[in-house]
């Protein structure tokens, strides 16, 4: 089993619904450990980098606006196979298709914005995790 670190963002819907603690508790219950945790406002620049893979999509301006509705909570989370396991805990992008028991299925939007307002971002592979950790945390902000 690989000891990895994933970059998670609690999106503005999670913050507005007071769900940061509830979702973080699910991660801790899995045995994952916190290496870094902070609240931050996301600039146009960091969002253009972070969402470069959807920058040409027609919905990107809405996603940028959503991600700037409030500060987000950035989390560096470590553990065995944490990257894939957190993606499983989240469920698919669309909260309506996400199964009950998954974070997006239980807490994501169910009334029209289900593909966008889906509670958390999580790294989708080791390479993106390394890039995303650097994007959101300085070395001195991360516990070993
Ligand atoms: P994921 O976050 O599940 O890895 P993507 O990387 O494809 O999904 O998309 C990034 C984010 O953009 C999603 O989490 C969601 O907030 C938003 N998004 C994706 N697809 C759509 C869509 N069709 N309409 C609106 N927002 C979307």
Protein described:
This protein is globular. The model has no long low-confidence stretch (mean pLDDT 98). The two termini are 18 Å apart. Helices cover 38% and strands 19% of the residues. It has helices at residues 12-16, 20-29, 44-50, 60-67, 82-90, 103-107, 126-136; strands at residues 3-10, 33-40, 72-80, 120-122. With 144 residues, the protein is an alpha+beta fold. 34% of the residues are buried. It has a single domain (3-141), classed as Nucleoside diphosphate kinase-like domain (Alpha-Beta Plaits). Adenosine-5'-diphosphate (ADP) is lined by residues 54, 59, 63, 93, 115-116, 118, 121, 124.
Classified in CATH, the superfamily is: Nucleoside diphosphate kinase-like domain
- In DSSP terms (H or I, runs of 4 or more residues), the helix count works out at 7
What composes the largest sheet? 4 strands, antiparallel
Low-confidence stretches: none
Radius of gyration: 14 Å
Main sheet strand line-up: 2-3-1-4
| CATH class category | Alpha Beta
Helix share, percent? 25-40%
CATH architecture call: 2-Layer Sandwich
Give the strand content. 15-25%
Indicate the structural class: alpha+beta
N-to-C CA distance: 18 Å
Number of domains: 1
CATH topology: Alpha-Beta Plaits
Summed over residues and divided by their number, the pLDDT gives a mean of 98
- The succession of helices and strands, N to C, reads EHHEHHEHHEH
Structural shape: globular
């Amino acid at each position: 089993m690989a000891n990895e670190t994933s970059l998670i963002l609690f999106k503005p819907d999670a913050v507005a619904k007071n769900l940061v603690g509830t979702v973080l508790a699910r991660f801790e219950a899995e045995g994952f450990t916190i290496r870094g945790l902070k609240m931050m406002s996301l600039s146009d620049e960091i969002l253009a980098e972070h969402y470069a893979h959807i920058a040409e999509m027609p919905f990107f301006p809405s996603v940028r606006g959503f991600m700037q509705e409030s500060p987000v909570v950035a989390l560096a989370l470590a553990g065995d196979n944490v990257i894939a396991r957190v993606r499983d805990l989240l469920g698919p992008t669309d909260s309506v298709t996400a199964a009950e028991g998954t974070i997006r299925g239980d807490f994501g939007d169910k009334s029209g914005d289900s593909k966008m307002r889906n509670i958390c971002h999580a790294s989708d592979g080791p390479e993106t995790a390394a890039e995303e950790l650097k994007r959101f945390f300085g070395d001195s902000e991360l516990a070993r």
